[in-house]
Amino acid sequence: MFMEVIKLKVLVTGSSNGIGKAIASKFLDEGHEVIGFDIEETTINNSNYKHYIQDICEKLPDIDGINIIINNAGVQNNNDIDVNLKGTIKVTEKYINKNIKSIVFIASSSASTGSEFPEYAASKGGVVTYMKNVALRVAKYGATSNSISPGGVITRINKHILESPKLYKEVLDETLLNKWASPEEIAEFVYFVSVINKSMTGEDILIDNGEKLKSNFVW
């Protein structure tokens, strides 16, 4: 039986590359309206997509009626607390509204293992705790709030590892499945958690190919 897609208004931060671009593309493929924030230009070309050159730590534009917030924007080892945690809080508090359906935070496996740069791990741990706080507050709207914590993902921020056979072997050896995730795979999880899911809230989902069982950090 054909089911009509209910068009949702989705905000994706950090939408120009990697996981964020894959998430934005997934929602567009499913027929939703997507608004992207990034400090870089975008290569996404879709009539349902609107792009803002936007630092999430700066003044945010007024946008009404957002149904889904995907907090993906972040940095690594460079103002991590300000961007990853404070910036994420700023975006979320700005756009929570009575029409909100779900909020998803892209955290990190380091939020539970601590195996990363110190401020990065702390910032992502804070994101997970803040996600739970948001879940408590948006429940009155019937909305969910969850986080996804990827381990290694094949993105340009990991370019120096991906281009080094020695380092790449080391990081793969730290996983049980001997692989890293693709951005598209993470996007599929995000879509399920934010659109399909109706009952899980306040939870963090670890997607690390079994790396947590070893918990070593290779850089």
Description of the molecule:
This protein has 7 helices and 7 strands. By secondary structure, the protein is of the alpha/beta class. Strands 3-2-1-4-5-6-7 form a 7-stranded parallel β-sheet, with helices on both faces. The chain has one domain: 3-Layer(aba) Sandwich (Rossmann fold). The radius of gyration is 17 Å and the shape is globular. α1 packs across α7 and α2 runs parallel beside α4. α2 links the parallel β4 and β5.
Q: CATH superfamily assignment?
A: NAD(P)-binding Rossmann-like Domain
Oligomer: single chain
Percent in strands = 15-25%
Instruction: Indicate the mean pLDDT.
Output: 94
The percentage helix is: 25-40%
User: What CATH architecture would you give?
Assistant: 3-Layer(aba) Sandwich
Q: Structural class per helix/strand content?
A: alpha/beta
Q: Which helices and strands appear, and what pairs or packs with what?
A:
Elements (H helix, E strand, L loop, with lengths): L8 E5 L4 H12 L3 E6 L10 E5 L14 E4 L8 H16 L6 E5 L3 H4 L4 H21 L5 E7 L8 H4 L2 H9 L9 H14 L7 E4 L12
Parallel strand pairs: 1-2, 1-4, 2-3, 4-5, 5-6, 6-7
Main traits of this protein?
37% helix, alpha/beta, 219 residues, Rossmann fold
Q: Concise description?
A:
It is built from 7 helices and 7 strands; from the N terminus they run βαβββαβααβαααβ.
